[in-house]
Amino acid sequence: MRIAIISDIHANKHALDLVLKDIEKRNVDKIICLGDIVTKYFYPEYCVDAVSKNCEIVIRGNCDDRLVKNPNFAWARGKLSATEITDIKTSNLIYNGSKSKMLDGLDYLNNLPIKGQIEIGKSIVNLYHSNPKDLESVFNPKVNTKISVNRTNNKKEQILDHNEMFEDDKPSTTVVGHTHMDYISKVKDDKLHVEPDSSEGTIILPNDKAIINAGSVGENIDYLGVDKNYEVISTEITYAILDDKGLEQGFSAQIVKIPYKETFKVVFEDSIDKQIIGKENGGFPYSPSDTSYRGRNVIQQNPNDEKLREHINKRIADNIEAEDKRKKEKNIRETIKDKMENPLEPSKEGKGQKIS
Fold first, then answer.
1. What is the CATH number of domain 2-259?
2. What is the C-alpha separation between 301 and 265, in angstroms, rounded?
3. I need a labelling partner for 305 at 20 to 30 A (CA). Which of 31, 202, 258, 314 fits?
């Protein structure tokens, strides 16, 4: 049995297609998704439908949860409400009865479980988006506390004790996503040891305690600088493969890393085109700063390509110009509306004054 585990797609259709194509080549028997199918990028309905059709188990992520509950995500909610979801394979975790069809992407996300469990031989593997207790708290042994808290806008709890990443004291493996940073780690003498190269593959035995982070399909993260305080989008996107080695032999865990530079250029172009169209016309709901951030990441990934640098900077300028134009037009509309709703007070002679 070979199991692929994907996480944190964030409505990035281009990246998801790249990963699913790679998975297809590797003779995988089952795909599991650890959530955050939506938000950030432009294709929530495409990604929810693709995940529902390709993944046997799907866990709810914090962004899936927010989209369902938070009215600030009205744009993506609107797109999902028109999505037809078919061939739901996760219903064995949601319902005790027969599998059913859901015609609403929001209902699909709202019914996703917050955890799951599989057995590989005699090994117990627990599945979460972030950790056993909630969808938001951050555990990231690859970076320091300050960086990990910053990844959640200084609002969510930071998990420092690796023991909190397990349901109990029994040997098991915890598999998560959420941080957009992949790793494979094992507990030895009550200390967590992160493997130096997660792409090489690590054997995990039934009596081991291990934590695996599958990274992100939609937007993996690297931290740069001496203090690792500069965040950039990685040149690779990742997912995990768990390969059964036999009843007593446990399984091998490997992080698959897929080159993302060229696809990221496509993602940036797609994003900025939709941003320029504008929110009022059903366009991309990012702010210009978000789109510019991704453009600068494209430059960061291709530092010696001067033509690309010029092109990206021109597109960012186009984007800023379009946003400035929208703001001016919005101000004019609001001014006219205000004058229509609040005309000047009539004079003492009872004659109204004209609105210029």
1. 3.60.21.10
2. 10
3. 258
Q: pLDDT of 158-217, one tens digit each? A: 898 999 999 999 999 999 999 999 999 999 999 999 998 888 889 999 999 999 999 999
For 174, 218, 249, the CA distances from 224, given in Å and listed in that order, are 27, 19, 38
How far, in Å, CA of 329 to CA of 49, rounded?
Answer: 37
pLDDT tens digits for 228-269?
Answer: 667 889 999 999 999 998 878 899 999 999 999 999 999 999
Name which of 8, 11, 7, 69 is nearest 274 in CA terms.
11
Domain definitions of the chain by residue range: 2-259, 262-341
- Give, as one character, the DSSP assignment of residue 256: E
Residues 6+ apart with CB under 8 A from 83: 44, 45, 48, 49, 104, 105
- Distance (Å, whole) CA 41 – CA 337: 33
